[in-house]
Amino acid sequence: MASAARLPELSAVPWRQLVDASYLRRQGRLWTFFMYCHVVPFIAIGVGLLWLNLLAAPVAIAAFLHAWIIPELYGLRGANVVRARPQSSTAESTAQGLLGDLLNHDARELQRDTGLALQEGELGTWLVGEAGALLLHEKRLYCFCVKATDSELPPSDRIAHLLLALRSDEQGFATVANLAFAGAPWRVRRRLDPGMRDAIDAARRISVRA
Amino acid sequence: MDSTGHSTLAEWTAGDQASCDAAVEAFRRELDEGFIAVVDEGEGRATQVRELPLESELVIMRRPIAGG
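Structure tokens for the assembled complex are given below, as produced in the milestone run.
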């Protein structure tokens, strides 16, 4: 992807380091570390309570539930960045036509079926939704909150705005966007609408080929 | 690209100076309103432009993006 000119939107986030592969790797490891920090103590508490006294089983179960639910909530947070808001209008039909022109045949079909536009980049494989984007990079999925600033735009137009920004400057796009989650793709996949899961599978296939 | 799906702001033909001038004027007006001009080059590449490239077939004006 071309990145000769940086996104002008970067001026709104001058404190952020430009996202590159090593930054993503570091963020991914941090997310995994903090996930363990949340999960391991609760498991230890549950096991410890059971070891001390079986009568503490209800509290131990509550601790195990915490260990389970915290990563699930993070996964849900990641999935929410691409959750689509249903909207049907003449404007959407027009916008869908323009977005279709920006995508190749396979990506167009995938976008119509799943609501996510697939874009291969240097950082990995992107899936762009109306108000967020997923990046599959080295077996981790990074979920970014990012949107076009005009809330009146039809959904396909919102995707097209993001797609053009991504194609103009991939690193700048990832820098402007807010990272909502980084972790195992399966954790996000199962929280997505069933129709969107095919997009994750398609991105993984491309990632494996690359 | 706007709330109607998209609107054609200007069309121009090489050699037709009047249409080119009108297109340049419309282009600058949109830039002043905060739009960002992009030429999609296919194959996942796009270029931002500050001057209207009259040789391009299509120039798309997009809204700025921001973290959500």
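Chain A is about 60% helix and 15% strand. Residues 21-52 of chain A form the longest helix (32 residues). Further analysis is deferred to the final report.
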